[in-house]
Amino acid sequence: MPLSLEEKVHLLSMVDVFESLPKEELEKLAHLARDASYERGEILPEPQEGGEKLYVLNEGCVHAPLITLCCSKRQ
Known about the structure:
The protein is α+β, with helices and mostly antiparallel strands. It is built from two helices and two strands. It has helices at 5-13, 23-32, and strands at residues 60-63, 68-71. The longest helix is centred in the middle third of the chain and has 10 residues, at 23-32. The model has no long low-confidence stretch (mean pLDDT 84).
């Protein structure tokens, strides 16, 4: 189920790089954010040149060649 705008703002506010932004700026980012769900073992799309996407993990694990990131569902 897609996150509401308020849920996206809350999620973004818990990300270190965004935590100091005022709510108005977080709302602007939240409007641009798109929900995506992936099944276990599914491969994320390859990053494009220029780094146009940023993934914020709400729940689950992501394995990259050099790191593994896990996140329990953020409250």
